[in-house]
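Thought: the user wants the 3D structure for the chain below. I'll pass the sequence to the structure tool as-is, report back what it returns, then summarize two notable features.
Action: structure_tool
Action Input:
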Amino acid sequence: MRYVTYMKTDFCDLLLAGDESSLTEVSFAGREMKSFTAGRREEETEEETPVLARARRQLEEYFAGERKAFELPLSARGTPFQKRVWDELLKIPYGETITYGELAARIGNPKAGRAVGMANHHNPISIIVPCHRVIGARGKLVGYGGGLDLKERLLAFEKGNRGN
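Observation:
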């Protein structure tokens, strides 16, 4: 069973999804996004489970500038390569950025910058798995499922709250 709930923030509207024991998706509600559940025949209900309620609280704390790291059971569906990239994203400190090339090097494949970019594009747990902290080689903001304006706002927000 897949459980979903929605939350509004000053930054964006989010869809939170999970199963009985873990968070499986945080995506931008109302955006044209590729569904992370495409092709799966899973029953879905709009219900806030304890895991989704915990994710909501932690996201509210994040957007209030009170939380810099999340403590949630995550279960992202993806290829082994994507999961390696997503695991490495979790290691990028709050308020800091790295380039796609740096991320590729961190997973042991320095020539895989484009593949890392595609893995970021398919990250099903936005914000919590912080793909917004990855930027282009010359510091340029590139690619983000929530839009570049949101990516810029999230990065500025985090940099402004690093000392708190």
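Final Answer: Structure generated. Helices lie at 50-63, 80-89, 100-106, 113-121, 148-161. Strands lie at 2-8, 13-18, 23-28, 44-46, 98-99, 134-135.
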